[in-house]
Design brief:
- This protein is mainly β.
- It has a single domain, classed as Hypothetical upf0131 protein ytfp (Roll).
- It has one helix and seven strands; from the N terminus they run E-E-E-E-E-H-E-E.
- A hairpin with a 4-residue loop joins strand 3 and strand 4.
- The radius of gyration is 14 Å and the shape is globular.
- It starts with a strand and ends in a 26-residue tail after the last strand.
């Protein structure tokens, strides 16, 4: 099984959780076709994307081709089965350069999300993220 995932936060190259994509094949940079709210929130300074199409900004990220094992690892990391975790959906993203549109899996934070540390972002570059079990 081969799938495409769009990552916008700590899963991007150079960030804390990128190693989860060690089996993935990078396909380049992309941007959401629609605007969505992306912000840093909560005591862990998590990057969160909210499922509110048309609000916020078109978000930059990276796309990867992944297999089923990587999808399972992503679901676990994002807490898909937990009430306060993320929800996996498929949305259209626009590849860069070239502008080809393709469907990609993305992880939206479940509502409500509170304690924003930033306004709506276009490109996550924050380095304050703290993994689970922070002091």
């Amino acid at each position: 099984m081969s799938l495409v995932v769009f990552v916008y936060g700590t899963l991007k190259r150079g960030f804390a959780n990128h190693d989860v994509l060690s089996r993935a094949r990078p396909l380049g940079r992309a941007r959401t076709r629609e605007a969505y709210p992306l912000a840093v929130a909560g005591p862990q300074f998590l990057p969160i994307l909210l499922r509110r199409p048309g609000e916020g900004r078109r978000v930059f990220g990276e796309i990867y081709e992944i297999d089923g094992l990587t999808l399972e690892a992503l679901d676990e990391l994002e807490g898909v089965d937990h009430a306060d975790g993320y929800r996996r959906e498929t949305i259209p993203v626009v590849g860069e350069p070239g502008g080809a549109v393709r469907d990609a899996i993305v992880y939206f934070k479940k509502e409500p999300a509170a304690g924003f540390h930033t306004p709506w972002l276009e490109d996550y570059q924050d380095r304050r993220y703290r993994a689970h079990g922070f002091p």
